[in-house]
Amino acid sequence: MFHIYCPYCEEHREEEEFHAKGQAHIARPPAPDDCSDREWGEFLYFRDNPRGLHHELWVHAAGCRKFFNITRDTQTYEIRETYKIGDQPAVSTNPDQ
Amino acid sequence: MTQKNRLQSGGRIDRTRPLPFEYNGKRYTGFAGDTLASALLANGVDLVGRSFKYSRPRGIVAAGADEPNAIMQLGASEATQVPNVRATQQELYEGLVAHSTNGWPSTEFDLMGYLGKVGGRMMPPGFYYKTFMYPQAMWDTYEKYIRKAAGLGRSPLENDPDRYDHVNQHADVMVVGGGPSGLSAALVAARSGARVILADEQAEFGGMLLHSDEQIDGVAAVEWVADRVRALGEMDNVLLLPRSTVNGYHDHNFLTIHQRLSDHLSDRAPQGQVRQRIHRVRARWVVLASGAIERPLVYGNNDLPGCMLASAVSTYIKRYAVVPGQRLVLMTTNDYGYRAAFDWQDAGHAIAAIVDTRTNPDGEAVSMVRDRGLNLITGAAVIEVTGGNRVSGVVIADIDEGGGRVTGKPYSLACDTVASAGGWSPTVHLSCHTGSRPEWRDDIAAFVPGKGVQQQLVAGAVNGSYALAACLEEGARQGAQAAINAGFEVDLEQLPIPSARNVEEWPAMPLFHVPHTKPTSRAPKQFVDYQTDVTAAAVELATREGFESIEHVKRYTAMGFGTDQGKLGNINGMAIAAKSMNKSIPETGTTIFRPNYTPVTFGAIAGRHCNELFDPKRLTAMHGWHQQHGAKFEDVGQWKRAWYFPQPGESMRQALDRECRATRESVGIMDASTLGKIDIQGRDAREFLGRVYSNAWAKLGVGKCRYGLMCGEDGMVFDDGVTSCLAEDHFLMTTTTGGAAHVLEWLELYHQTEWPELEVYFNTVTDHWATMSIAGPRSRELLAELTDDIDLGRDAFNFMEWRSGTVAGVPARIFRISFTGELSFEINVQANYGLYVWEKLFEHGKKYNLTPYGTETMHILRAEKGFIIAGQDTDGSVTPLDLGMGWCVANQKPFSYIGKRGMAREDCVKPQRKQLVGLKSRDPQVVIPEGSQAVDDPNQPLPMRMLGHVTSSYYSANLERSIAMGFVRGGHDRMGDTVYYPQADGTVIEAEICSPIFLDPKGERQNV
Question: Containing domain of residue A59, as a range?
């Protein structure tokens, strides 16, 4: 069971208080009606499934109800950082960096 | 009964407290301090079960969690049955009742045993796959006998009367294992001020020190243990957990510990006490000091009762004062094994021989053998034992230096016990739970924990350091390091390290498979895994049949699949597989150990989460009234909702018919408090609503209500409800009962991640309000009797409007909305006035035949009007257009609301989508079962082309016929067509496609 630091509550809490909401940084296209079916399909359904670092969106559902992001290693389950919505990750998932 | 194998003195047992117990229907006596296993051995019980596949007689092999054979069914009554208890870990108590689990018809006389002798050859690995797969129809027959013959315990048929619970713990340093390393680590860490938890699976701390002759800091080891445990017990920052197995090491240093609080006292927990407890520990740092398990040697007939681990022999003699035989042969590959022979000799029993597989061993142990005048045979091995239900002799032969083949002429020696010492396997299980792969160390011929992936340190035997002095030092150092890592101060220069004598050790020999004069396939069975009956020949056969991955070998042979997870045999099996494939052990690798380390009872897993406490119940303010009036309830999420209100003698159908008629003819009332209610405020609330609902919200005036459909980005409906404008910047949204939490999270998601610039706030107010919906032609008259400050006139208070005022003197919001199609008012009052107002309505309602109705009547009444229920008539694959609710889609809105683009996808606009229609069965009395699939031609060949399913179906008393809603491909253009619903019993129901609005299509009833 994860031990997650909520960047809003500024405390570690048990995983039971949180819901995982999938990959982070999936922005809704600003002009949906201008998207092709393919582009809309990519936005809707296509997600990364890396072995290693992954940015994820979580919500402190049974706590402050705030959404925030986690950079997590999907192999070791280590959480490298948590950061607020609107912030950029400090730990990059890009192996070139 | 005499305890014929019990010594007159010694051991950690209390001879003044004899404990009678029962095993397989016979009465025996042991002593306080015994385990069930030591008591059985004391009484000379050799046989404790029959083997899983070959039904061979089996005896006790080990003295701890690694025991593969002595697996007991415990319990004096039906309700207290516990299966798969290792006799070696069960402390004896007065009146304990145990049965062996393997052995049908009985352990002593075993029918399958005879079959096994014949059938053994017919049961190679993969036997079940190869034999019982065909014909498939026979599986039920096979299974019954296989299960009975295998017999790995049974669950009780009555409810467990005992209590179990869970405790959350936090530790700076969690030490696993209370042997020399663990005690050493715990004390150093605790003295730094860190919060320390020390857990050990045994009743007493000390581990192997409890049967050791060695000295620590100049005193006997057991005295050192007692002193350390006392010191730890006096510290407030230390939690000592004996009888507590750390069973799982999970993510982020979360550990689960199974503590047995009363299993050593009695069949049932004493009055008011908890039987077992799960500690859920979150630790900053973990020190694994879980020790090592001795490996047995693999030789012919090594499963005969009387064949034991050397360390177990020592444990039984020194700790329990039980010598499990008269005449011993010890086979060892290392110096540690010699201890068993010395203990045996010191107990005054005979030693036939010590067989050391090493060619020229010459350590301290060997010189002690010479001093004691024992018969030492080196460069040789016990290649086979002989005997029926107990060892009667051994066959010994010289082997070559590598242990690969027999070089000398075999000869026999009489004995009744064979102790084998094949070296140590560190207990790497917990480290493996975290995903860390164990690493092979050639110097000790064993796997040790690999690089840790969590905040973990290892100390002592689990780390491959077997000598006592090394254990004590590593324990102290790692305990200090863990405390430092957790933020505490320890002076490493001044670290007190307990001292023990350094013993000069002769290198151990790696030997995983003792050679025989015959090839493995024809030699007497050489067991690798006792519990699942896997032999060396079976492992070799598996590799010959092409199973090269050790994980596949495991699954094909069932090696390590028992309740013991192969604690004894796995390393031997992997080594045999590796050799058979000409690979090294590290190349072959290991299988993965997973939680739990030892089996955990369901009671402990459930804890207090059972019966009333299994799941929270949500009750409305009027719940008690419903109960008093005979309501039947249904679960909707966690809510208990009144389902219907049968009167005495009424069937469900009669009750529903009465409730439906009363509502349409006069007035009915429903408790709608469970509907989700979300208070939405802020300057941009209206804009926000327009983005999350498919319809328009820009012009909804204050005092008005509007129905809305909520879709996902894929254009599929997921919730619906009425939202009312309370003020320009204040709205009240209602959701489905089950969808409330999800909708609130959905709104927050979009506000926080997509449109943070909108000023809008959400809060759940579901529990703040009690909601009662009165519906029917006389509802206005009824309400008028209870309110004097709201004009209820048709033109003063229009449909889809709300007013605030008082009802029965209580401040209320009244919504003129309708889910029944009748003139209807939804009265909302503060929840704690709910029951009062509800009862006031009934006081005045008698003359109108005010009738309470539940969710089932609500379903029928709304279906008569063709109103959907999100989640019943939708399933996440349905757009508003599929539902025929295009009127609820506003494509002219400037903002591309959620669902708009999704609805325009190619698949959503194609013709022949499944569309929601009404259905009338040809025979009006036949109700089409929900879930039935529509077909055009019921006589077409299978598989039929299915057109869609029935989502809602009821008998309508008002229409005096059955009505249904369901999906039909292209159904909106097929009004009047006939479709067929084939049923599982072979009958076919014929139905006509129609509008889903069965009653009052113009809506005149609600506009009065």
Answer: 1-28+53-97
d(CA B663, CA B780): 13
Hey, what are B923's tokens? 């025979």
Residue B142: pLDDT band by 50, 70, 90 thresholds?
low
Long-range contacts, A41-49 (Cβ 8 Å, 24+): A41/B905, A43/B713, A44/B713, A44/B714, A44/B902, A47/A22, A47/A23, A48/A23
CA B1005, chain centre distance (Å): 54
Answer whether residue A68 is part of any domain.
yes
CB contact under 8 A, A75 and B435: yes
**What span, in angstroms and rounded, lies between the C-alpha atoms of B2 and B91?**
20
- CA A49 to chain B, closest CA, distance in angstroms equals 19
Instruction: Tell whether A15 is covered by a domain.
Output: yes
Position B866, amino acid = G
- The answer to whether A86 contacts B756, with C-beta atoms less than 8 Å apart, is yes
Residue B583's contacts (CB-CB under 8 Å, 6 or more residues apart) are none
The residue with tokens 């060695």 is B214
CB B562 within 8 A of CB B130: no
Portion 27-46 of A in contact with B at CB < 8 A? 27-28, 31-33, 35, 37, 40-41, 43-44
What is the nearest CA distance from B571 to chain A, expressed in angstroms?
25
User: Which class for A30: exposed (0-12), middle (13-18), buried (19 or more C-beta within 10 A)?
Assistant: exposed
Query: Which residues face B89 on adjacent strands?
Result: none
By the CB < 8 Å criterion, does A13 face chain B?
Answer: no
Instruction: Answer yes or no: is A41 within a domain.
Output: no
Q: Are B376 and B329 in contact (CB under 8 A)?
A: no
Contacts for B831 with CB less than 8 Å, ≥ 6 apart? B621, B673, B767, B768, B769, B770
Please calculate the CA angle B749-B755-B761 and round it to the nearest 5 degrees.
Answer: 65
Dist. CA B353–CA B355, nearest whole Å: 6
Task: Kindly list the residues from chain B whose CB atom is less than 8 angstroms away from the CB atom of residue A77.
Answer: 251-252, 435
Contact B919, B928 (CB under 8 A): yes
Cβ of residue A16 closer than 8 Å to a chain B Cβ: no
Q: Which residues pair with B811 in a beta bridge?
A: B806
Domains (range + CATH), chain B: 14-150 (3.10.20.440), 163-289+426-494 (3.50.50.60), 295-423+508-515 (3.50.50.60), 519-614 (1.10.10), 676-764 (3.30.70.1400), 767-847 (3.30.1360.120)
Residues of B in contact with A28 (CB under 8 A): 713, 754
Q: Which of B23-37, B191-205, B557-571, B939-953 has the lowest mean pLDDT?
A: B557-571
Is the pLDDT at B88 greater than 90, yes or no? yes
Give me the pLDDT at residue B117, please. Answer: 46
- CA-nearest residue of chain A to B897? A32
Asked if B102 contacts B54 with a C-beta cutoff of 8 angstroms, the reply is no
d(CA B881, CA B903) in angstroms, rounded, equals: 9
Of A40, A61, A79, which has the smallest distance from its Cβ to B905's Cβ? A40
Check if B1004 contacts A (Cβ < 8 Å): no
The least confident of B146-160, B403-417, B761-775, B808-822 is B146-160
Mean pLDDT of chain B: 94
Strand, coil or helix: B201: coil
State yes or no: pLDDT of B114 exceeds 50: no
Contacts of A43 in chain B (CB under 8 A): 713
What ipTM does this complex have?
Answer: 0.97
Interface test with A, best of B692, B752, B898 (most A CBs within 10 A): B752
Q: What is the CATH number of the domain that holds A75?
A: 3.30.2270.10
Percent of residues, chain B, with pLDDT higher than 70: 95
- Test B756 with A31 for CB contact under 8 angstroms: no
Query: How many domains would you assign to chain A?
Result: 1
